[in-house]
Amino acid sequence: MSGRLLRLVGTALVAAQAALAPLPAVAAPDQRSVAELLTDLQRLYRQTEQATETYNGTAEQLKRQRAEVARLDGELARARLSLHDSRRDAARLARQQYQSSTGLSPYVRLLLARDPQQVLDEGHVIGQLAREQAQTVDLLEGSEKKQDALVRKARKALDAQLRLAERQQKQRNDVRTRLAGIEELLASLSAEQLADLARVEADTVAGAQQKIVTSGALSSARAAPSEQGDRAVRYAMDQLGKPYQWGAEGPGAYDCSGLTSQAWEHAGTPIPRTSQEQWARLARVPLNQLRPGDLVVYFPDATHVAMYLGDGKVVQAPRPGDRVKVSPIASNPILGAVRPDPAENPARPRTPTARPKV
Known about the structure:
Elements: H1 3-8, H2 34-99, H3 106-112, H4 116-187, H5 191-214, H6 227-238, H7 256-266, H8 275-281, E1 283-284, E2 295-298, E3 304-310, E4 313-316, E5 325-328, E6 334-339
Antiparallel strand pairs: 1-6, 2-3, 2-6, 3-4, 4-5
Helix pairs in contact: 2-4, 2-5, 3-4, 6-7
């Protein structure tokens, strides 16, 4: 299926479904209405995006786990070196003790000595050596215990990494299966059906946008972004026209949360990678207080995210077959909005970033 046909279908707006179960058996495409086809296609897109965000979440866990394995490997290498040094010191003290042994107790040596003070001085040295030996033995035992504990932790961390890698492979296959379902459905449609889908979808989005604007849910005042928010918006706008690709974080392609996370990374405020984590961990902000740079999250399970530009528009990486573009904020069912930098004040007024007409 060519990207041209995929791009014929714009961003869908339908009632949000609570579950993402596989599609039931449906009639042939020519026996379904445009509304039914749109519902089926939107469901496939949403299932694919949820699978993509799940894959992204596992990828982030795997990245952290690999870093933990590397950290433990480094710590284990240092522990082994320390253990080697402790064993060497213990062996040296053992040789010294054997070589200086006289077979006489310190009391006998004191009684037979011509200079008792010298013997007492020697005893002080011997005591110091004994304490050093005890410390060396303690250090040796501690090094051995630390190495054993690190070996167990490193083995456990590596096992966790292997499990995550296996899970990621299964999730990758799931995304590819769902993408194939989209390709199959679109390939079954005629050019006339595709045109009808695009028209109905555009009308639906326009109606939803008009409703949210007239309801007063969005502020009519033009809010200024923070300095970091302005940088994030400028970065996202620089990516216009680049293709959507699941799991991508740029610079040549993006998925929805890949675009928003990279934009804020370049603005100097790292945020979570996935849309679900962005919704869960960032500060919530009412829609009527949105400012450019804020993130608008969609669907009840937070499976899509876009960046607010102002004037009721967002920039987003929409879905497979599409490209990074500016869209109406109501292009999908809105869950809410979050702000990556709630403590930052708005920047000084400046010339707005140029935005293409949509």
